[in-house]
Amino acid sequence: MSEYYIGQKFVGEYPPECAEWCGENNAYIKEIKPVGDQRQFEICEIEPFAPTHEDIRQMRVQYRKTHIDDKTLERNRRIANNTWSEEDEAEYLALDAEVTAYIEENFPYPEES
Hints:
alpha+beta, 3 strands, 18% strand, rod-shaped, three-stranded antiparallel β-sheet
């Protein structure tokens, strides 16, 4: 177990190893209200950035590329060649519904403020 943790405070100076720990643990060292005439520092967690609308759009596009776009290209080609069957269509629509449901659940757009 580490000797450092979020919320930990140091009066005077903090150990150099603490800065290294912060760099490896999504944290930073912030100077806070002094104790008497001595400086005081606290380990704080770095808050993650919320993805933007464009970030989410890109994640959705990438998920579709990875999970259904090849099948969509095959579908278009086979429809043009008249070799796409009703069974193929049923399988494709089921896959599309599955991919769409996953995207909607896991990559929701941020709410407008």
